[in-house]
Every structure is written in C-alpha cells, then in structure tokens.
C-alpha cells in the first residue's frame, strides 16, 4: 500500500475513534484509511485491578451510541449517578445529580483497555488497515498530501495525515508546530482504590489546601483516584508504604466511603496545559492530546477530543471527494474553536480556583459552591459543562 486517503498516526482511543466515525462513509466513497500504531493492541481484554481508566461524559456516550458502539462499551462502563463537590474544612459543597439533569448518568468511567478493545474489534479491515507495531519517523509535505517514512524503512503517501500520537508528539515538533505550555507546578498521582462501603455510582471532587482530588466509581466497587499535589509532595506520597498512604488519603478525603481498604500501583504525571498553536495545515490535522492536553481533575480532555473527532469527520464527509483541502480543514477548526475555548477555559479555571490555598480565592470558591447548591440553574449549567454538553443540545430538550 503506497498511497492511502487518510493516514491516522496513532491508533489509540482518539485515532481509532476517528477511523470508526469515518468507516461507513469511507467504504461508500472508496477511501483507504490506514492506522499507524507503535503498540499492538491485545487479542483480548484482561481485567486488572490497576487498569487505567477514563471518565466519559454523557455527550461522549451519545457519540458512541450514534456509532453503534455504546452497547459493547457499556458492559464495563460504571455510571456516575452523582458528583459531590466539596471544599475541605469549609461549608461550601454541592451535589450534581443525574435525575435532576434528566439523564441516566452524568458520565461513565471505563477502563482504557476495555474501551480500546471495543473500538478495535469494531474496525472493518476491508476499509481500515493497520500498520502495527510501526512508527512514523519523518513526515514531508508533498503536492497533494504527505509522505511518511516508517521505522521499517518503508514509506507511503496520503491525501490527509492526522497526527494523533499524544501530548509528547515528536512529529508535531518535527513539523515546527509550536505549543503554548502552561505548567501547573503539580503532578497527578493516579491509582485505584477499594473503599470500605459501596460507592453506589458516586463521584467525588474534593478540594484541599494541598490540591484537588477526584475519586471516580469503577466496576468491582473500585474507585479511580486522581490526587493533585506539588511535585515533591506527590513523589513522597507515591513512595509511601500502602498503610501510610491510605492514612493520608483518608485524612484528606474523609469517611464518605468508609475506611479505605486497598490501593493499587501508583503513577505520577507532571501537569501542564498544552495547546498546539496550529491544528490544521493543508493535508494535515493535529488531533487529541497532540492538539490540547488538559488538567485531568475536570475529566474533560478525552471528551473534548472525541467532539473534535466527530466535527472533523462531518467536515471531511461534507467536503471534496478526496480529503485534505485546507478550506475544509479550516471550516472544521473554526467550528470547534468555541467548544475548545470554553472547555479548556472551564478546565483551567476550575483547576486554578480549586487548587489555590490563597484565603480570598478559598473564600470565593466556598461562596461559589454554596451558590451552586442554592441556585438550580447555576448548578445545571455546571453539570452541563461536566457532561460535555456546554455547546451541545440539552438532552432534556430545553434551551
């Protein structure tokens, strides 16, 4: 295969979702789509206590329903029926409820390995081909597309190259696409926890003077922990023995789920807001974390990327017979500009407001949480942002 219509560089959750969004129409149009991925997916799903997971918004469920994938994904998707938001040591608190918002769940927590398995199994190999394990070492713009040089010394050409190879994309740098990087001077400690009581579909956003934390419901009564701390403090927590770690976590979180019983493997991720200064060029799109990497505490990153995927697919299918012309790609980016600005701004401001120990900001967020609790319209607006519906139609049919 020396030339394809679309080469998707990165066959992870974002790249595979784009391929599946285009799959039906691509078959009708005769498009050839190639996924290039350095890590081969497993042949079957293997449950693991320490599996990493993603929070999928209600809007993301809607997108996967349209693709006919949600029934499979939902088999291991833990619904978030309530989100409790609180500020440690202060009265401010609010609760978002799926029943109040008229939806079956505010969101869902799914293990990444399971989600990937559901996506990869849905791929039609007559339309979508794999080069895996394989890595693109160099890209060169040519007339009508790009030439890709792979690590096995083969090359291929494409009408449209989609760069979905993650937040540390070497190809993005190679192409001279600059990024705006805003360090948070924090690291996220990620681990799975077993609480003493049933989580009952509750998610918790807890804000402390040392940084925010989230505890999200998982299958088998586990919870996914995202605990944001300053760099050295996060490293200290990661190196504590299990008993000492659970004691510190219990002190910060409280006993809303009883005594915390078990913690799995702990992983640290330095945190920055990263935004690519270019997302489209002729015959090129930057997608997923390569386009924007968000703070994980608000759980918006993958959901925004999936909305980008949907919008890009719609633009390509409304465009010329061959993908890649600049006008079509600019129309996609213009359409998503507001969604990206609102979502990135919401995530960044929540992170800064609730991650600060400054007395004035702490008092302000305390009043803000009280206001959310007392004013249903404000609470509903906040819930819609969390559900990934800030720029999408209201599921209840309201304006």
UniProtKB/TrEMBL annotation:
Q: EC no.?
A: 1.14.13.-
Report the pathway entry.
Cofactor biosynthesis; ubiquinone biosynthesis
Q: Which GO terms describe its biological process?
A: ubiquinone biosynthetic process
Listed InterPro entries: FAD-bd, FAD/NAD-bd_sf, UbiH, UbiH/COQ6, UbiH/COQ6_monooxygenase
Tell me which cofactor or cofactors this protein depends on.
FAD
Q: Which GO terms describe its molecular function?
A: 2-octaprenyl-6-methoxyphenol hydroxylase activity; FAD binding
- Protein keywords: FAD, Flavoprotein, Monooxygenase, Oxidoreductase
Catalytic class of the enzyme: oxidoreductase
Q: Where is the FAD-binding domain?
A: 5-336
Ranges in coiled-coil conformation: none
Q: Extract the Pfam families matched here.
A: FAD_binding_3
Record carries keyword Amino-acid biosynthesis: no
Q: Which family does it belong to?
A: Belongs to the UbiH/COQ6 family.
Question: What is the name of this protein?
Answer: 2-octaprenyl-6-methoxyphenyl hydroxylase
Instruction: Tell me the name of the encoding gene.
Output: ubiH
């Amino acid at each position: 295969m020396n030339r394809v219509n679309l080469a998707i560089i990165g066959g992870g959750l974002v790249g595979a979702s784009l391929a599946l969004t285009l799959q039906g129409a691509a078959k009708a149009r005769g498009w050839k789509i190639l996924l290039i991925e350095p890590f081969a997916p497993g042949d079957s799903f293997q449950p693991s206590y320490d599996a990493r997971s993603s929070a999928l918004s209600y809007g993301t469920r809607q997108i996967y329903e349209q693709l006919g994938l949600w029934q499979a994904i939902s088999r291991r998707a833990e619904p978030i029926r309530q989100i409790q938001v609180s500020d440690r040591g202060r009265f401010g608190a609010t609760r978002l409820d799926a029943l109040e918002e008229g939806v079956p769940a505010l969101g869902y927590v799914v293990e990444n390995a399971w989600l990937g398995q559901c996506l990869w199994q849905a791929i039609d190999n007559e339309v979508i081909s794999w080069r895996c394990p394989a890595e693109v070492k160099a890209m060169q713009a040519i007339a009508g597309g790009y030439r890709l040089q792979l690590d096995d010394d083969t090359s291929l050409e494409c009408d449209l190259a989609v760069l979905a190879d993650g937040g540390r994309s070497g190809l993005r740098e190679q192409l001279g696409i600059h990024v705006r990087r805003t360090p948070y001077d924090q690291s996220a400690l990620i681990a799975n926890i077993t609480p003493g009581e049933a989580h009952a579909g509750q998610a918790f956003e807890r804000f402390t003077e040392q940084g925010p934390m989230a505890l999200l419901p998982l299958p088998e009564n586990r919870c996914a922990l995202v605990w944001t701390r300053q760099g050295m403090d996060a490293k200290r927590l990661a190196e504590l023995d299990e008993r000492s770690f659970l004691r510190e976590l219990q002190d910060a979180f409280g006993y809303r789920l009883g005594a915390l019983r078990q913690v799995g493997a702990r992983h640290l991720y330095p945190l920055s807001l990263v935004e690519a200064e270019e997302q489209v060029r002729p015959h090129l799109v930057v997608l997923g974390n390569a386009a924007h990497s968000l703070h994980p505490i608000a759980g918006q990153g993958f959901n925004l990327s999936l909305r980008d995927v949907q919008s890009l697919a719609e633009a390509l299918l409304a465009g010329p017979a061959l993908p890649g012309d600049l006008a079509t790609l600019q129309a996609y980016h213009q359409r998503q500009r507001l969604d990206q600005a609102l979502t990135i701004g919401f995530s960044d401001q929540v992170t800064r407001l609730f991650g600060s120990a400054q007395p004035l900001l702490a008092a302000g967020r305390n009043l803000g949480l009280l206001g959310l609790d007392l004013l249903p319209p404000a609470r509903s607006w906040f819930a819609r942002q969390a559900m990934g519906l800030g720029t999408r139609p209201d599921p209840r049919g309201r304006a």
